Inverse folding.
């Protein structure tokens, strides 16, 4: 929105040409989303408390969580609002990738919002039935993957790139849709599984989003992409604006979500953020790098899958409780220690992901 306005007024005010630079708009998007989150956060928390949209704590979980009962949830609406405002203000609204990622983010957010609303406000313990939740996730994930496949203009937009190798680009054809579906839906659920401790999911999301923003900026620049040996995706640079908005909104939310949390993001935030990260990685052709940088989310998901499989096949559990962050809590780690150590792991994994830009 502001880009179009600046282009119109730039004929009279040359200083507005600054808006042409993605880096400038990305910085402003992050700051705008951060400001929106910090300004509106207290009012949202009061509103959620008035609605009695409080956290329900499992009795079979860590006993230290019992004190969290009643903490306002659905705080992910704050993240989504901040992302939406900031992206619409600073991104090029004529860019199809911006709209794809925005629509995917808010579509998954609606799924999470409805589930949260039924459980927390209407006091329906079942919420949205799992089969229907997965059904709508699948619908939106497939629609996004199909749209990207049928509107792609270059072979690079649907090829699978393997990190560390410059010349390895595997044409996927229609299999691109399958990979796209699993990346978007899978990562949406992975972030949701990770969101079990104060700030545990949001900080890795901020880190991964920032790194994907760098990949998007470089992929959208022909000179940089050729030099680094990464796929050149015309128009992908604008996703750096979205990623910066997500990072800024996430940091603003963390202000209230840090231990001890004043608010939780709920499914409305976790499902949306995971889908957004998956969609951006799909567009910039960095699905494998996403699995590395988002290793904490992958680890949490794998722990649940292994726990379920082990119990069904052997009648025994591998972990004291899954997802794996609860395992460490039950081993006696204080909650802040689990959170910060998982953050440190995320920092390391994101740096490894960024290092693939040069190690090719």
């Amino acid at each position: 929105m502001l880009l179009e306005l600046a282009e119109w007024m730039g004929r009279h005010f040359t200083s507005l040409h600054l808006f042409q630079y993605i880096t400038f708009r990305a910085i402003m998007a992050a700051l705008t989303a951060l400001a929106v989150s910090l300004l509106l956060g207290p009012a949202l928390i009061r509103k959620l408390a008035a609605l009695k949209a409080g956290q329900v704590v499992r009795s079979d979980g860590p006993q230290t969580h019992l004190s969290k009962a009643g903490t306002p949830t659905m705080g992910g609406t704050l993240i989504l609002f901040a992302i939406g405002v900031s992206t619409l203000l600073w991104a090029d609204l004529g860019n199809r990738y911006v709209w794809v990622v925005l629509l995917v983010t808010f579509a998954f957010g609606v799924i999470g919002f409805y589930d949260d609303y039924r459980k927390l406000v209407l006091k329906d313990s079942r919420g949205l039935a799992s089969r229907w939740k997965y059904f709508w996730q699948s619908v939106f994930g497939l629609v996004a993957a199909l749209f990207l496949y049928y509107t792609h203009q270059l072979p690079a937009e649907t090829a699978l790139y393997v990190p560390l190798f410059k010349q390895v680009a595997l044409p996927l054809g229609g299999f691109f849709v399958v990979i796209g579906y699993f990346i978007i839906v899978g990562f949406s659920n992975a972030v949701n599984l990770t969101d079990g401790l104060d700030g545990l999911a949001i900080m890795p999301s901020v880190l991964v989003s920032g790194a994907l923003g760098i990949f998007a900026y470089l992929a959208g620049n022909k000179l940089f992409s050729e030099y680094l040996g990464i796929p050149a995706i015309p128009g992908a640079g604008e996703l750096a604006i979205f990623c910066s908005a997500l990072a800024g909104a996430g940091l603003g939310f963390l202000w209230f979500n840090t231990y001890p949390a004043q608010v939780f993001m709920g499914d409305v935030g976790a499902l949306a953020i995971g889908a957004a990260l998956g969609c951006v990685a799909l567009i910039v052709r960095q699905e494998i790098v996403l699995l590395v940088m988002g290793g904490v989310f992958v680890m949490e998901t794998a722990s649940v899958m292994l726990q379920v499989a082990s119990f069904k096949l052997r009648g025994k559990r591998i972990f004291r409780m899954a997802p794996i962050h609860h395992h460490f809590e039950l081993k006696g780690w204080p909650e802040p220690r689990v959170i910060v150590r998982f953050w440190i792991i995320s920092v390391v994994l994101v740096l490894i992901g960024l290092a693939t830009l040069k190690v090719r």
Observations:
- Residues 22-355 form one domain.
- The CA atoms of residues 311 and 317 lie 5 Å apart.
- The chain has 14 helices and two strands.
- The chain has a mean pLDDT of 90.
